[in-house]
Amino acid sequence: MAKKRLTILQKLLEFSGIHPERLRMRWVSSAEAAEFVHEITEFVETIRKLGPNPLKERVAA
Amino acid sequence: MSQKIKEQVKQLLADRKIKGFLGLREENGHVMPYLFCDPQELDSLSVGDWKKPGDARYPLNQILIQLAMAYPDETFAVLVRGCDERGLRELFKWKQLEEGKVIPIGMGCPDELAKACECEKPFPDCQIDGPKGKGAPSQRISKIEAMALEERFQYWLKEFNRCIKCYGCRNICPMCFCNECSLEEELLVEKGDIPPDNPTFHLVRAMHMVGRCIDCGLCEEACPAEIPLRILYKKITEVVAEEFGYKTGYSIEEKSPLNLIEVK
Prior knowledge:
- The complex is a heterodimer.
- Chain A has one domain.
- Chain A is built from 3 helices and no strands.
- Chain A has helices spanning 2-15, 33-50, 56-60.
- The longest helix of chain A is centred in the last third of the chain and has 18 residues, at 33-50.
- By secondary structure, chain B is an alpha/beta fold.
- Chain B folds into 2 domains: 3-129, no CATH class; 139-259, no CATH class.
- Chain B has helices spanning 3-14, 60-70, 82-93, 111-117, 139-145, 149-160, 168-172, 200-208, 218-222, 229-244, and strands at 20-27, 30-36, 45-46, 76-80, 102-107, 127-129.
- In chain B, strands 1, 2, 3, 4, 5 and 6 form a 6-stranded mixed beta sheet that branches.
- The radius of gyration of chain B is 19 Å and the shape is globular.
- Chains A and B meet through helix 1 of A and helix 6, helix 8 and helix 10 of B.
């Protein structure tokens, strides 16, 4: 169910001008520390490449 | 053009098959919803022609839900266009109305209206009156998709910033029937904040339209800030169709992907 919602939400974000890769969902069990670290690191790298969120300015203002 | 509708309703009332017919009536130059219980009143029946053919529209299904709650044992007939029929099907599936207690009386919309609405199917399957117009594809979606990401962002920011949080889009929506609405949840939408959190407010509503929006466009008609809401929900409906093969309101058996547990 969450996966379906995510698919739709990503498309909606893209349509409204927000990069869909800013939203990500992964399944990692509590026993998979290495996997968790890998996912987070990769996500941080992706976000870094995309740069600051365009909505950030509005929040600060 | 409402002769056939009048005849059928007269018959249904005479046979006591329905308690009343929920349609539109023209009175003192205004078109408004009316529950016809007496066949003699049918002379004042309107099919929503006001300034232009069919331009006076109301969420009749929303009123029907109220009627069904007040008179749970009665059967009512209701005037439906293509969009209303799609709405009825979804409302049956969401258990807001009982299929056996609703008799849809279908009429088609004129081409002019279908084009203005960019309606895919401007006539119901139960049509007995009115034109059977051609569907018009949405050109507004592709216009936005042709924009670059940043341009789209600025476009929606500008549109959403006009929002005065009147809740008109939600209030007129025939598919909004939740007793508790996320848009009134203080943790999500702060009180006294205008415009509401941009774009959260509108994207939350858009997400809640998944598998529900039947593309009637009343939200956009109601919006005093003229935010092109219909494009947003139309896009959502398109995504649901493309990703999950579900066409909202087109089938009585098939369920929305968000109402099914299985993963496709």
